[in-house]
């Protein structure tokens, strides 16, 4: 890439490495999210496998069987699983070391879209369905932590905000 | 000549932390709105049953279901004129789960009698929102006046085995209460051509039309608490009629539910009901 850029007469654009703790923390968070979203996807198709407490506030069956459990006809649990499969790949040490800006941009976009979706689901749980699903909340917390790690790291890696 | 400095781009780190702040602000706002909303008045128009009544109705011991089974020596519980099984119908589903719905009216005394068994059956598979039931009495001027019961008006129910919705289309004074969604109205028109109250469609497979026992059998009971407190007494005629109804409804739910619990569906009371209705569990 550097060679190609130089050949084209442009200044090569480098990607600053991410701190080591960010690489491993995001990988751990992505794996956690992957595990939780896998479980939620399984229970979407096999409700009997869902084990959760039921009281006035917590009722995961109420959430996972609600109208809001689908987005454009697709189970939200499945969308979460797809998100975390991609996020796990994008948070591997190899992906963090990549000099391709698109890899880091993709990670940033996935984190932002995931966070926006989590906010919608939180609104749906609290204000529409009236119940909270503890496993979904676990995924939401992981998504928020990933969002914080990525959004505070990737812009600096890409040199955003630096003077030209 | 000094070349003017380019204006620096917005600080990326600042933008990052502002976006985190926006997320936190949205979360806090939603939680605050929810907190303020839940401190408001009850959404249901009708008085909530006490927690004791709720527990007595929704936690009937398995031994009671199995001891009573499907008959009562005192009160006639006739399944064949009330429960119907139709094979080969398109499955009724909601959000990917098998579905059931109740169609009735608060004034209707036959609905009042039938709701006891339906609620008890539903409680074996799931829970009612906020662990609350709302009390109701049938019309004071109709047959079996003031029969103590509950209403499904604005009552949410959740189960991992099937979805259930109750529709009370008229209130205690025969005034319109809930409007049927078009798809439900179509099913009522198709499977309950006489528009009889009560009507329950379980997965387009098992149907309840009318009451399995006479609401006059509940005469003498003036409160829900009086009936609820009898639900562990297997020699009570009223308990026998209610629990027999619950076993029939449970059998219908077992036949349509997704991977239903064996603790309910393989129990002697439910299997006896399934045999009587010709249902395969």
What does it look like?
The complex is a heterodimer of chains A (164) and B (281). Chain A has 164 residues and is an all-alpha fold. In chain A, 66% of the residues lie in helices and 2% in strands. Chain A contains 8 helices and 2 strands. Chain A has helices at 2-7, 20-45, 60-64, 76-90, 93-97, 101-129, 134-151, 154-157, and strands at residues 70-71, 74-75. In chain A, α2 runs antiparallel to α4, α2 packs antiparallel against α7 and α4 packs antiparallel against α6. Chain B is built from 9 helices and 10 strands. Residues 1-8 of chain B have low confidence and may be disordered. Chain B has helices at residues 12-38, 51-58, 62-68, 109-123, 182-191, 224-228, 237-256, 262-265, 268-277, and strands at 83-85, 93-94, 97-104, 126-128, 134-137, 148-151, 157-159, 163-168, 199-202, 206-209. Chain B has 281 residues and is an alpha+beta fold. The longest helix of chain B has 27 residues, at 12-38. Helix content of chain B is 38%, strand content 15%. Chains A and B meet through α3, α6 and α7 of A and α1 of B.
Put the structure in a nutshell.
Chain A has 164 residues and is mainly α. Chain A is built from eight helices and two strands.
Largest chain-chain contact? A-B, 41 and 39 residues
Counting helices, strands and paired strands, the structural category of chain B is alpha+beta
Q: Cα-atom Rg of chain A, whole angstroms? A: 19 Å
Low-pLDDT parts of chain A are 1-10
Residue-averaged pLDDT of chain A = 83
Total of DSSP H or I helical runs spanning 4+ residues of chain A: 8
Structure annotation, total helices of chain B: 9
Computed over alpha carbons, the radius of gyration of chain B is 24 Å
Terminal Cα span of chain B: 92 Å
